[in-house]
Amino acid sequence: MSPATTDLCDAHGDRLQVAEPVFRAFGARTAFAGTVATVKVFEDNVLVRETLEQPGEDRVLVVDGGGSTRCALLGDRLAAKAVENGWSGVVVYGCIRDSAEIDSLDLGVRALNVHPRKSVKRGEGQRDIPVRFAGLEIRPGAWLCADADGIVVGDQALSA
Is residue 44 included in any domain, yes or no? Predict the structure, then answer.
């Protein structure tokens, strides 16, 4: 079970970054935490797919989609792939689709919103680089915890 973000902020507030409250919650897993893997893409989810096809080992995939709300970067098939491969959660600075199906999966998902249009498939973007959005700077290997109260990021796993 993930520690509560509120308790983490109380105990370690000076060592944590707290995301601006811009994300909506999806997926059956209401709280999740893990070591971060990152991808940076724009309206192209090929790297998202390639990453979620790898063993997740209870990690969290952080997708910097540039904040685009013109298409979705994660849908039900990729979310099911994340569950199958052992990912704890996915944070998308962009949109998802198939939200009703994603809500039935044992996966935590945070995204800006939903959009029915799928992304392009050019394979453009970068993997395992620092990303910046929602008041956060997230590096690969950082630790992220999300629950109903928000998202916090630290350099390492912390307990309350």
Answer: yes
Average pLDDT over residues 44-49: 98
Question: Which range marks the domain in which residue 65 is found?
Answer: 5-154
CA-to-CA distance for 31 and 71, rounded, in angstroms? 25
Q: Please indicate, yes or no, if residue 27 is contained in any of the structural domains.
A: yes
Angle, vertex CA 49, rays to CA 47 and CA 53, nearest 5: 115
Does residue 95 form part of some domain?
Answer: yes
Task: Note the helical H segments in the chain.
Answer: 5-12, 46-52, 76-84, 99-102
- Is 159 among the domain residues? no
DSSP 142-157: -EEEEETTEEEEESS-
CATH of the domain at 127: 3.50.30.40
The pLDDT value recorded for residue 95 is 98
What is the count of structural domains for the chain? 1
Confidence at residue 159, expressed as pLDDT on a 0 to 100 scale? 79
Select from 8, 9, 22, 11 the least CA-distant residue to 134.
Answer: 22
What was the pLDDT predicted at 7?
A: 96
- pTM confidence score: 0.97
pLDDT score of 156: 85
| Longest pairwise C-alpha distance within the chain | 44
